[in-house]
Amino acid sequence: MQQGPIFADLVGTTLTKEDEEIIAHPLVSGIILFSRNFESKKQVTALTQAVRAIKNDMIICVDHEGGRVQRFRDEFTVLPPMAELGALYLQDSNKALRQAHKYGVIIAQELLEVGIDFSFTPILDLDYQRSEVIGNRAFSNKHDIISELSGALIDGLGQQGMANVGKHFPGHGYVALDSHIADPVDERDFETLWQDDIQPYIALNDKLTAIMTAHIKYPKVDDELVTYSKKWLQDILRNKIGYQGIIFSDDLSMHAAAHETPLVRVQKSLDAGCDVILLCNDPEAVRDVLNQADKLVDRPRKSLLPLRG
Fold first, then answer.
1. Secondary structure letter of residue 177 according to DSSP
2. Helix orientation angle between 283-291 and 17-24, rounded to the nearest 10 degrees
3. What pLDDT was estimated at residue 190?
4. Which residues carry out catalysis?
5. Please, are residues 64 and 93 in contact by the beta-carbon 8 Å criterion?
6. What is the residue extent of each domain of the chain?
7. Does domain 6-307 have CATH number 3.40.50.410?
8. Cα–Cα separations (whole angstroms), residue 194 to 188, 202, 207
9. Band of residue 132 on the pLDDT scale cut at 50, 70, 90
10. How confident is residue 267, by pLDDT bands cut at 50, 70 and 90?
C-alpha cells in the first residue's frame, strides 16, 4: 500500500494530542523536526520513539546541513557552512573531499543514533553572491566542485546507511529574494541553467536518493513555480535528465508557494510530479488538508522506503 504524501511537523519537544492525530492520519508518512523540537539527545530520542509508537513506519527527518542550517547543536558536532569546504577544495582538493566524506559520516551517525532517518542535504545551489538565504550554505560557485564535494558527502552518508536529498532544483543561488518571504523570479534561459545550475543534478543523478524543488519561477522555461510545474519535474527532471528517485516539494507554507488554499497547493504539487509534500509551520494548513483528504486526488508515486535509515 502506498504511503501518504504529506510530511508535517510537531509543536514542541513532546507530542501533543493534535500531533498524535496528525501522525496517525493516513495521508501523513513523515515528520520533519525543527530546533523547537530539540532539547537534548535523550529528549529527541524519546520524541522519535513516541512518534513511531503511533506509526512504526513513520519517516523522521531534519535540516542538518551545517553552518546556519543545523537544527540540533547541543551534544552534536557543530558543522561549519559548506562554503568552507569549497574554499579548502581550492587549496587541497583531496583534503576537502576527505573532509566532506567525514561530515557525511558524522551527520549520519549522530542523527541515526537519535532515531532520525535523514537530513535534507546536500545543498547543490551555486553561490552567485546574490542570495542571502543560500550564501555560504553552498559549497561553491563552480558546479564541478559542488558535484565532487556533494558526492563525497553523499558517500559518507551512504556508508552509514543514510539517504540524501539534493536541493533546491534547479537552483536557488542566483535569485536575491528569499522564497520563504517573497516571490523570486529567475529570468535566465534554459540553456544557461542547464550549463551551470543543473549540472550537479546531472552529475549526481545516480547518487541522489531524493531531490527537493525550488519555489522559484523561471518564465523563460515555464510560467509555473517549479514545485507546481510538470515541465520542470516531468519533462526536464524525469525525462531529459532521467532522474528516477524521489521528488520532494519544498515547504508549501513558504510565501512563494502559498498563494492558494493548502489543498490546492498539495494537489498542484502532486499533479506536477512531487512524491512527497512538505507542509510545515502552519498547523491550520495541515488540518485543512487532512480534514479534506477525501478531496485529494492522489497518483502513483515513488516508494519512500529508500528514505528509511
1. S
2. 40
3. 98
4. 180, 250
5. no
6. 6-307
7. no
8. 10, 9, 19
9. confident
10. very high
